[in-house]
Each structure stands twice: as structure tokens, then as C-alpha cells.
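can u do me a favor
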């Protein structure tokens, strides 16, 4: 019998962009192997190590802006374009590869690396160039007050209300390339499942919250996700 989902919610993490040659955070070659997140990804650490932290995010921004979406990003876009149901994306990624692949309904719960935030006037603005300690805010013209417009450890996620609403009404929840270690995103699968959604995880390896999923699809997201999307479009996702 064909199964029809009305509300599909993706949660994407660094692993979906790994095949676009963007580093993940954990595991071999992960960003947090070469750098202590306390030094650059907390507000206290950022302020204390301002120059090094800005340089870390300048590299991240350059790489993100130069990257191209891969088959996994494109598969989600195809599903959005061809599936008769709502398809939304909660992403922990600060890159913009979902936008580059023309996906819609994308919620950057950890912010975006192509934006900066002024600690003086609290306004955000698009940033495609390197930010230096002396770079001036285009709004308040204050110098030395810019940080990347991304969520640091200890800060609230963005779009928390929308995420909650989407998870509550999801009937299919799909996590792609996330280690399931960072709250609150790591709790989304359990919450979606509790509300009645089918929960499926796509990852190279077993993730920390694997017990929250009905199904685990092991492998590279660029290979596994397009196949799964074809199954959904054919009305037979469970056969995958
Ligand atoms: P992680 O680096 O923690 O995990 C990446 C996951 O992707 C791992 O479980 C890998 O096994 C998997 N993976 C790698 N390549 C893959 C591939 N080709 N196909 C499928 N899976 C693959 O990244 P996140 O879970 O996204 O927060 O990390 C969550 C948050 O922790 C990040 O958003 C970041 C970080 O600290 C902030 O910057 C606020």
C-alpha cells in the first residue's frame, strides 16, 4: 500500500555538506579536532580570542561561499519540487548550500556564516568578505563590534518556535549527516517520534541518538538520500 506523508521535516547537519568538501565538526579532520570550541564558539572565548576567532570564521566563510551543493542537497530540492506535501528543512549548517540548491522553507537554527552581527547595535547584515578586528559596522559605524551571525554554545537556537511547530506536525522526520550530539537539535527526532512521526536517520556511521529513529540508512548521503527520495516520489519509501 502506498504511504503518503503530508509534512516531511529534514534536520540536516555538517555531514550533508561533507561531500561538498566542507569539514564536519567532529570525527577525523573535524573542525573541533584542530581547534577548541571554547575558544571560538562561545561568546566569552570569541571576545577573548577575537583575532584568531575571526580568522577561524573567515576561513569557514570562504570555504562555504566557494562550495557547491551535492546530490544530497539536490535530492531534497527535488522532493520539494515534485512531492505533493510540505517539505521543510531545519539545518544546523551555517553554510548556504540548501539555498544554492534552490531549496525553500530553510530554517538556519544555528545562523548563517554569510551574515555578521554587531554586538553594539544588534543588527545583522550580509557578509561575503573577511571580517577583521577593526571592520566597521555598516549600521552604527562602530568598530571592533562584529561577530559572525551564528549561534555560539550557550546561546538560544534561531527559529525555535518554527522548529517546534514543524516537528509537532511532522509525519516523516529525516535527519541527515548529524552526529546527534548537540541539543536541542539532538532531541528533535525523539520529539517528532513521540508526536507520531516516522523517524529516519541517514549517516555514515551510527549516531549518538540512534535509538530515537525507526530506521537507519548507512552510507554517504549523496548516494542514499537520492534513492530514498525516488522511493518517496514513487510512493514506496519503506522498500528502500
Ligand atoms: P558533526 O560534525 O557533529 O557530525 C557530522 C555527522 O555527519 C557525523 O555523524 C558523520 O558520521 C556524518 N557524515 C559525515 N560525512 C557524511 C556523509 N557523506 N554522508 C552522511 N553522513 C556523513 O556535525 P553536526 O551534527 O552538524 O554548532 O554538529 C552539530 C553542531 O555542532 C554544529 O551545527 C556546530 C557544532 O558545534 C555550531 O556551530 C553552533
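np, heres the sequence
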Amino acid at each position: 500500500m502506498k504511504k503518503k506523508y503530508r509534512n516531511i521535516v529534514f534536520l540536516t547537519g555538517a555531514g550533508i555538506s561533507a561531500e561538498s568538501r566542507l569539514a564536519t565538526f567532529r570525527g577525523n579532520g573535524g573542525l573541533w579536532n584542530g581547534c577548541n570550541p571554547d575558544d571560538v564558539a562561545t561568546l566569552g572565548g570569541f571576545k577573548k580570542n577575537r583575532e584568531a576567532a575571526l580568522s577561524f570564521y573567515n576561513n569557514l566563510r570562504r570555504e562555504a561561499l566557494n562550495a557547491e551543493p551535492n546530490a544530497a542537497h539536490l535530492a531534497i530540492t527535488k522532493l520539494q519540487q515534485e512531492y505533493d506535501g510540505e517539505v521543510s528543512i531545519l539545518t544546523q549548517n551555517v553554510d548556504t548550500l540548501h539555498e544554492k540548491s534552490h531549496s525553500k522553507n530553510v530554517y538556519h537554527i544555528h545562523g548563517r556564516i554569510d551574515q555578521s552581527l554587531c554586538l553594539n547595535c544588534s543588527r545583522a547584515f550580509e557578509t561575503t568578505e573577511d571580517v577583521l578586528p577593526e571592520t566597521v559596522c555598516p549600521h552604527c559605524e562602530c568598530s571592533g563590534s562584529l561577530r559572525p551571525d551564528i549561534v555560539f554554545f550557550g546561546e538560544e537556537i534561531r527559529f525555535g518556535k518554527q522548529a517546534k511547530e514543524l516537528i509537532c506536525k511532522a509525519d516523516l522526520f529525516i535527519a541527515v549527516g548529524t552526529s546527534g550530539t548537540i541539543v536541542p537539535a539532538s532531541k528533535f527526532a525523539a520529539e517528532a517520534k513521540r508526536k507520531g512521526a516516522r523517524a529516519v536517520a541517514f549517516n555514515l556511521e551510527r549516531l549518538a541518538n540512534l535509538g530515537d529513529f525507526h530506521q537507519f540508512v548507512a552510507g554517504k548521503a549523496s548516494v542514499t538520500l537520492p534513492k530514498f527520495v525516488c522511493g518517496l516520489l514513487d510512493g514506496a519509501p519503506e522498500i528502500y
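The two ends are 15 Å apart (CA to CA). hope that helps!!
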